[in-house]
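Section 3.1 - Work completed
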Amino acid sequence: MHSSNNVCLYFEKSKVQCFELIQNRLLNEAALINFSKLRGFFVSGVVKGDPSKYIKRGWLNSDNLDTSSTELFHPFRFYPLHIGGELCKLNIAPTSTLDRDSFNEFLPKISELLPSLETISKRVETANLVATLGILLEPIYWPRITSKTSYPAVTTFDEYEDKLANYREQVLSLVRKLDPTEWCKHHENLRFQAAEMDDNSDLYILLRLSPWIKMERTTGQIGGALWIRLIAEVLRRAFRDVHNVDWPEEDQAFGQWYPGARERTFGTEFPTDNTVIAKPHLAFEFGLHTGSTIRWYLEGETEYYAALHSLPRAASGGVELINLKGAIGKEKASTPLRLADSLFKDKELRRFSFISFDGDVSANVRAIKRQIDNGNVVGYINHNDPDFEFANFTLCELIEVAANLDEEQGVDTQTIRNSSWANVGSGKAFEERYRSLSNIGQGGLKGERWGAALAHYALNNPFIHGSERKRPFFETLNYALLSRRVKYEYQRDNFRINSSTFQVETLDSQPS
């Protein structure tokens, strides 16, 4: 038996059962016309119009359950109206102008531009067939697509589940009798028609992964293309479940995806089927990611406050600054912030890990190397040799920043500027010497004031004095900002950090 006979006869036989479980409320003719027009479909009429005309011609099904004079329609019936409207439109370029004489001459040729009545009839009847199967499948697949379920008021939850299970078994037995090759073509036509109406495929995926209320309220041609694709998805899901066929998802039409490209973009080949995986990827594509995309771990107070001064609104930009407070290399099981646990969590959340640490403590170096070798760092390592101060500033620059801090307090700084600083080559040694020379700085150079002062000086002097070398701290800062536009999977799958040099290298450059 032909598909149309199978589907239409089954629909008439099971209409009552179907509409007990239907998820979209039925519309009267005026509401269907309004629904269609709001979504950019070419439909005539206000209270009465094309739906009544199509019923008289036998092109359209009414979804009434009784013999009342009020015609009711499932929203999917917009589809045959859309096809008929498109076929009956006379497409003349907007810039065309016709005076009365030329119009009279052109009038006899209009009929030649329009398809024959027989062609329109066949196309609309086919669209009505597709809508009918879509309506039969809607109670089964609509809750999966919209993540919402409407329960009949007269049934309990258990009764609803029992009815749905029985209905599903019967309807899918119908699908089992249908030719998947024929219906694959119907699915393809739906995808192409949606793309002709609106070809913003990424926008469709964004809407499709949004809450149902956002899809429901989308109007215009974007909304029309959305609903065409929703019918297509209902069909695809059913034929996949019954015939084990994989048809392209509904965002795909005229373009072509290269192997692996969808997975790189959406995290999966099938974003509408694997929405949990696809949502963070899509949020990244649209710049809508929330929370931190980068966690920047800084060994101590000075580095932390330097970063905070440089990025005063880091968190709002997706960069989370973590002050390790010297805990690297001497963590205990009871330590509240354990770097290893944090790095593991970063991997789970697909979040880049940036680590700034001093190389003058061997335990720190061993701890970071261990995390790299265990594959726990996807991101960037800022290895300060020997420490933050002397990796980023010359001795003269450090003296200048320290003296400026004292001057702000109104004290004389000649002793700091003119005394010998021989044999001072580390941040610890610099602080000890400063404390011995400063009139007010016996508390040392730690914490917010010192870190902010170093960052302020570096921002005004981006290159290390006497050289053309950028300060490593700001190179790290720059990489952190750039990483917000890098896909986590791309970095993870193509690059590794060398645990000997702490440099990022491509995978093919690493020894096997």
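Second construct:
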Amino acid sequence: MTEQRTRYTGYGIWLIIASVVGWWAAFQLTVEKIVLAENPEADLSCDVSIMLQCGKNLDSWQGSVFGFPNPIIGLTGWMAVLVMGVAVVAGIRFPRWWWGLFGLGIAGAFVFICWLMYQSIYNLHTLCPWCMVTWSVVIPTFLATLVHLLRNGTLTRSAGAQERAGRLMVWVPLATIVAYAIVIAMAQLAGLDFLGEMSGILFG
């Protein structure tokens, strides 16, 4: 299937929007990390309550999985997404291998934030506001990219499969909402369990 500029403009615009939002969240987390490094006892602007905060996440080993703060990954990674979005809107065509590498990067980001969600909800028992902003844009970006790689011929050579994948893009928002609902349900159930454990410790 030959890529057409008008056909993929919507996807490119989404990449630009997602990258700006994601980069801003990563920037805010980086600032908070610097504040925390200068003063471990500082009250961070994102610390709303014991369960809605980013301080605990940033100060945990999960917050620096690769030996440096996770937000640095966002600062660099989202810039790549921004450049890709601008290129798609501009109608620049990329070879199949390039799209494959981009897809691997997006898939890696999705797997990473899924792991971070699990760690945050079930091990740290917190919800980091800026982390949730990142989650909220990574999920639809992954879904949209998966569909795009199907429709532009990166993942399949079948013209029929590409055509059917093209019709799936309109369902990405609904799939995203379902994913959000699953995360919210997980957080609520985990929150109830955590509150129950705390009550048992305090009053048991």
